[in-house]
Amino acid sequence: MLWIARRFFFLERNTVILSRLVRRRGADGRIPVRTLDRGASSSAAAAEPTGYPGGPYDTSLLVKYEHHVARHIWFGEERGPKKELKVAGHGLKLNSRVPLALPPQMESWVSRSGLASLQRTSLNKIDTNLVSAFVERWHLETSSFHMPFGEMSITLDDVACLLHLPIRGIFWSPQDVTEELAVELAVDYLGVSQSQAQSHVRSCRGSYYKLEWLYDIFVHHRAASSWAYATRAYLLMLVGSTIFADKTFTLVEARYLLLFRDLDGCSGYSWGAAALVTLYRYLGDASMYSCKQLGGYPTLLQCWIHEYFPTVGKRGENWNPAGNCGLPRAMRWSYRQGVLKVDDLRPILDELTPTDVIWRPFEDHRAWRVFDEICLYRGCLKWGETVVPYLPDRCLRQFGYRQYVPSPPLDCMMATDIDVDWISYHQSVVDVIGSSSVATTPSEVVDGYLEWYYRVSHPRLVPPHRDAPREVPVPVYDAGPSDPDWARVSTLIRRYLRQVNAEEEDPQFSDLFEALHISRSH
């Protein structure tokens, strides 16, 4: 009986020791870092995991992750009863307000402004579930989507090809516009009376104009042949319905009228950077758990998804790229009602692999938009008082280069010479591509990249199982097919085999596995 007593004694003692070693998570799900207990070794403490369940384990990169929606989704917590975001889409209204043809006097100004393409690029409706699923993967620290296989982003080249907006040009630094100044601007540049402007600005409860009001002014002045007034109202309505759309869904900031004071000079702005800065800003806001709306130009985001992820979401195709006659690539796509909700899309995005991506979708569009090396500029982009990091070194595969472990993101709050950096972009381009080489396969990464990425990121939004281990294993990807059509075939076959839990040894699936291997070899 003595040996039984000893067994119980050792069991009790070990239970006490284990209970002391158990680390309790805080309310945020994070394992707190604690100082060493007396007698504990430093090596044992170093091996103990820190960070968040599912990542990031190293929190030096995603410093705002505590407030990110992904942290809550991992524990089954949604933003609210509606899991998808409310998205500002003006496509239907804009299509009804854009005439088939503008008067020649207006057409000249609109064409020279660099904004003419925005008249036809908007989707009629937005797939809010699809857009929301990608917003949940956006991280403002890196200005990128964190996918299971690494980072991707909407680049200046994407904006140039999708919207045909100029990306070279100057940034805009506006003056403050009070309600009184908004009234004066409307009188001077929109040709309305003082009383009409005062009444309207007062009804907006701030320095704003209503989009519908601007349309009415455009119609009135067009009929009166007051071309400058009509053009300013039209252009302000156009950008307020597209690249500068905000979360009010009906208003545009009055300060943007300053952009069109000189109708002959507004072509000098980098409208592509303006669109990107505005969208980055709203993506950053919407990636936070407390936010329930998305501003900016959602057509840009949704069409970007359609181009890079051919197997995700539902969309209509108006024409094949081979038959394009120089139109913006956003016009290739049309809205189709999706059947998948945002929580259906999360596991689908979690299972994506590099072969599910068309890494360079615009190579067949270069006859109309030649690649501009300024798209590889690494630095801060500025529009108004909004400054965001633009970091192509984090998504090099989209430019045909092998992805390396990127430098830490820029702190744009400390940037002082953004306009100078933008003008003298060449050195930053050399720095970005000098550390890489042309990729031999579309999704090539350097050794150790994925291991680093899985330490600093949160690559999956849904735990594989409710009792899933704390750490998410680093996946191993094969090279996959280089041809986009074969990549799509490979993706569809693999998705079906995964849905039916097929095993390669099962004879009834042998033909499909053979087809999968054939598709991957192309």
TrEMBL record:
List each copy of the Aminotransferase-like plant mobile domain by range.
114-453
Could you mention a single GO BP entry for this protein? Answer: meristem maintenance
Matching Pfam families: PMD (PF10536)
Q: Which domain of life is it from?
A: Eukaryota
Protein's recorded name: Aminotransferase-like plant mobile domain-containing protein
* Annotated organism of origin: Pisum sativum (Garden pea)
